[in-house]
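STRUCTURE:
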């Protein structure tokens, strides 16, 4: 029946009484003991346990989802699924054991809703989780369920191939856990084959289950007891073997009953099934009811359906009741009651339509929920992206400011360094000009004093330039060039001295290269021009660089600037600026 959640503290139970702490022990264990028989009471216990602090919010959500997942109501199953999906994005599932429990419930819930895509998603995640934990057998057990889901989704070949690989990996191992997983995989393949209508292929698989269990019964001491599903004692072992052996025999009975020429074989295995403990339970009789229908044992089938229907009460909006209506219709027609058969068929068709409609509504609701969740996630991602974008912009701006600040600081330091260096160089140039002026003045005075002290008689001729030594000739030429400022003429050259003083070019060259610190007449002239230009730059700020260059004897301002920078490591403009700042 559909589950109606009741109140927690202060709420009444289903008999109208107020919930008291003395009624029951409000614990998770108490709720789980009754949740499948009395889901409403179980929900009350869970809520009360949460309020009393016996369980935390996450565990309470998990327990309530487990209760809702037992319902046949699509609405309750949706509630369970939404609770579980909420847990999947919480801290609760950081613990692998908790995560596995939630994944199991999600897989079961979505399977009940025939939502095979989502079920495959959760079972795949569980298989991956088990494999990461080194639990290969549990991963294979889960993959068997994945094989069934793939077939439900239309990929029959891939689904059966996965089932075959799981069975091959587990078959033949004498370990209880691997044996149990292999039986589960064989049952899964049987269900797939029955759904596909391949009843003949069911028989060897069911017989293989019987053989495995027969070996286990006879040689259980040889099996490694490593299963959490099967305790190693006679009672549990016999109950386990009876259950799965009976089911395998039931599968064979149904497969043989599907063939008109194999009814004897069908009744043989049906008799074995009915002798089993499981065959006497209501679940066992409900399991074998379709076989009774095929063999014409309608009384047994209808008696079982009556019990099941009584147990369902008013909660008949489910697939099990649809199967019951279908069985009743077949039985009524076989027993000659056409009117009843038509009625059952009509009710069966209406119920199937209603279930399909509910399924579609559930899927539509799920798609809407998923769309809304996706929209919320996208909006969150957009907001996060915007925050990140502004954060990156702010970080970039901050980084840019820092880089610019560092650049400015370095630039200022570099400018200060250049200014300091230029100031030193400018002072050196000024000192050089002053030195040269002083040097020329002293040389002129010495020459005058010498001339006065060594005056020769009028009839005694002075030494000619040809008779002078290299150093004497240099001094003679230097005095002539400086006093007459011959260097200020751009066209001035060695040829003019040769013509004027009747000297050879070799004599003039030797006078400068050997008789002075200069390498040549050209270097001497260049030095004089540069010093003159530097002096003009300081004393005549109104003159342009070109005017200074021309007034200093250079043919162009480019030559002047180039030679100035090469000689003093400073441009004429920089030199003038430094002197002006002084």
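SEQUENCE:
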């Amino acid at each position: 029946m559909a589950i109606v959640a009741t109140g927690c503290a202060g709420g009444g139970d289903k008999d109208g009484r107020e919930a008291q702490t003395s009624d029951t022990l409000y614990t998770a264990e108490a709720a789980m003991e009754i949740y499948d028989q009395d889901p409403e009471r179980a929900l009350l216990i869970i809520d009360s346990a949460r309020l009393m602090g016996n369980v935390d919010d996450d565990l309470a959500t998990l327990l309530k989802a487990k209760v809702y997942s037992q319902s046949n109501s699509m609405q309750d199953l949706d509630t369970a699924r939404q609770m579980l999906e909420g847990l999947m994005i919480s801290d609760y599932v950081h613990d692998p054991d908790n995560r596995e429990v939630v994944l199991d419930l999600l897989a079961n819930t979505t399977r009940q809703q025939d939502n095979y895509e989502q079920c495959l998603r959760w079972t795949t995640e569980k298989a991956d989780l088990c494999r990461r934990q080194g639990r290969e057998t549990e991963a294979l057990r889960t993959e068997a369920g994945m094989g069934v889901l793939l077939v439900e989704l239309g990929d029959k070949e891939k689904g059966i191939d996965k089932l075959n690989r799981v069975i091959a990996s587990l078959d033949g191992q004498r370990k209880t856990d691997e044996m149990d997983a292999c039986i589960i995989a064989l049952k899964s393949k049987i269900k797939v084959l029955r759904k596909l209508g391949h009843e003949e292929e069911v028989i060897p698989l069911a017989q293989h289950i019987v053989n495995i269990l027969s070996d286990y019964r006879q040689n259980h001491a040889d099996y490694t007891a490593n299963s959490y599903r099967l305790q190693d004692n006679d009672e549990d072992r016999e109950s386990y073997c009876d259950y799965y052996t009976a089911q395998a025999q039931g599968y064979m009975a149904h497969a043989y009953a599907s063939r008109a020429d194999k009814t004897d074989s069908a009744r043989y295995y049906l008799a074995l099934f009915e002798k089993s403990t499981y065959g006497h339970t209501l679940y066992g009789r409900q399991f074998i009811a379709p076989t009774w229908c095929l063999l014409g044992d309608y009384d047994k089938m209808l008696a079982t359906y009556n019990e099941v229907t009584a147990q369902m009460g008013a909660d008949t909006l489910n697939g099990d009741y649809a199967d019951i209506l279908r069985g009743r219709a077949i039985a009524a027609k076989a027993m000659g009651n056409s009117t009843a058969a038509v009625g059952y068929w009509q009710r069966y068709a209406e119920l199937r339509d209603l279930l399909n409609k509910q399924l579609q509504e559930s899927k539509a609701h799920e798609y809407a929920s998923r769309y809304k969740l996706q929209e919320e996630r996208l909006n969150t991602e957009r907001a996060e992206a915007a925050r990140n974008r502004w954060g990156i912009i702010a970080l970039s701006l901050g980084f840019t400011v820092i880089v610019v600040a560092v650049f400015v600081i370095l630039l200022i330091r570099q400018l200060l360094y250049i200014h300091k260096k230029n100031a030193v160089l400018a002072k050196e140039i000024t000192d050089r000009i002053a030195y040269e002026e002083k040097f020329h003045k002293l040389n002129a005075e010495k020459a005058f004093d010498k001339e006065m002290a060594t005056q020769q008689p009028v009839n005694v001729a002075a030494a000619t330039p040809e008779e002078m030594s290299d150093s004497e000739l240099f001094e003679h030429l230097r005095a002539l060039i400086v006093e007459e400022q011959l260097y200020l003429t751009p066209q001035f050259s060695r040829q003019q001295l040769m013509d004027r003083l009747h000297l050879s070019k070799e004599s003039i060259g030797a006078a400068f290269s050997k008789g002075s610190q200069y390498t040549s007449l050209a270097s001497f002239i260049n030095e004089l021009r540069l010093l003159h230009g530097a002096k003009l730059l300081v004393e005549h700020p109104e003159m342009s660089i070109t005017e200074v260059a021309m007034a200093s004897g250079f043919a162009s301002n480019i030559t002047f600037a180039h030679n100035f920078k090469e000689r003093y490591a400073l441009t004429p403009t920089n030199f003038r600026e430094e002197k002006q700042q002084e």
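REMARK: The first helix runs from residue 28 to 34.
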